[in-house]
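User: Okay, second chain of the day. Same drill as before: sequence in, structure tokens out.
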Amino acid sequence: MGTSAKVGRIGFTTTIPLEILFAARKIPIDLNNVFITHPEKKALVEEAELEGFPRNICGWIKGIYAVTTRLDLDEVIAVTQGDCSNTQALMETLQLKGVKIFPFSYPYDRDEELLHLQIKKMMDHFGVTEAATGRVKMRLDKTRERLTLIDRLTWQAGTVSGFENHYFLVNASDMKGDFEAFEKEVEDFLKEVKGRDRFDTEIALGYVGVPPIYDDLYSFIEALGARVVFNETQRQFSMPYRTTTLLEQYLRYTYPYDIFSRLRDIRGEVQRRRIVGIIHYVQSFCFRQIEDLILRYEIDLPILTIEGDKPTSLDARTKVRIESFIEMVKGKQEGHDSP
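Assistant: Same drill. Structure tokens below.
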């Protein structure tokens, strides 16, 4: 089922039931990934602003808009509930450009019946059966198991960097449009790291929030002697829980639901991975910034909140804050380890 046999390119604004698109022999394209890896990503944001997007709108929204207008897509699936509060307006502006839109929603209260209806509606729209999507799910689960191994090698064996972990897990959202090629890339990477020595870092950090718009965050952290061993949202993209049905899989997926579901997952991984500090990334002008209040109330660990706006490298102020945070966490850990 490589992409050579598929017809039609379907963009989407955040993770959706990927199995449906592959079963329909479509090429799924996560527009976030296309934007953030684009060689002209800064220009994309400026392009959207020149067309009238306000400065105080999330950079991801502007980047997705601009990159979508450049792509030859059959359709865009817009997640209108469970992701960005600006998605509806984004889709309306894209419709002005003649882009065909299909809406998909995650129910806030995780209502099983409502999610089932959304999945069924999407299957009907793309003309596939539950049996066909189930077969694709079984196939994708094999790749997801290998991604779980990459994740485990990050925190347990210490042979995978924070960025490598981020890279493979974030690409699980669309499997780069071709799950067979992506699976081979995953297998090649696992062979590469098999003979690696453990990274010489003792400061294990967690990364919480949406994937960063900064392009050098992980390398900067590792240059300071720390390492991200838990990428919360990226791990969720890989569907880390073993499930038997599509409905169960997307009910357990934490990202589109309430913060308290995410907190249960975060607490468990903090304990399992022996994380000593958390970096909470928030995007400028995003409603999820408010969740920082709840995170700090519920998680009993040092937390550094950093904010990003447009795609760029870390600014000097943010670098100083990260340096100070890691020094503080390191001091606390050394004091705790002292006899």
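The radius of gyration is 20 Å.

User: Thanks, on to the next one.
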